[in-house]
Amino acid sequence: MVAITYVEPSGSKVEINVKEGWNLMQAAVANGVEGIVAECGGSCVCATCHVYIDPERLAELPPPSEDELELLEDVKAERKPNSRLSCQVKANESLLGLIVTIPECQT
Ligand code: FES
Q1: Which ligand 1 atom is the nearest neighbour of the CA of 48?
Q2: Which residues are near ligand 1 (CB < 6 Å)?
Q3: 50, 41, 37: which is closest to 77 by C-alpha?
Q4: DSSP 57-100
Q5: Do the beta carbons of residue 94 and residue 60 sit within 8 Å?
Q6: Hey, CA dihedral for 49, 34, 29, 58, is it positive or negative?
Q7: Which atom of ligand 1 is nearest to the CA of 46?
């Protein structure tokens, strides 16, 4: 299990123990975290699972795929250098303690 902290659009923080191999969207939705819509269920076609990764830890994540980069151009909230699609980031031990902030809107 990998402890990940999600900051909901309201500012509330929710810490979840995410199973290794699960993606950050799956864990958020399964635990009722507010603000992730995930219309496509994780198929990397909707861009409604947009999150901001703790900038200091961004480099620890595998880089986004071409598909993810393309979809990030369509996110509703401001796209920032630390924007990622949460369905494309899998939990592993190296992400322990990661903070993920959910933007105010997804659609
Ligand atoms: S859930 Fe659709 S792109 Fe992530």
Answers
A1: 2
A2: 25, 38-40, 42-49, 71, 85, 87
A3: 50
A4: GGGGSPPPPHHHHHHHTT-SSPP-TTEEEGGG-B--GGGTTEEE
A5: yes
A6: positive
A7: 2
CA of 97 to the centre of ligand 1 (A): 23
pTM of model > 0.70? yes
Say how far apart CA 85 and CA 105 lie, in whole Å: 13
Are 9 and 104 contacting, i.e. CB atoms less than 8 angstroms apart?
yes
Q: Whose CA is nearest to atom 3 of ligand 1?
A: 44
pLDDT at position 18, please? Answer: 97
Q: Residue 42 is encoded by which pair of tokens? A: 């994780």
Residues of the chain with pLDDT under 50: none
Residues 47 and 69 sit within 8 Å (Cβ to Cβ): no
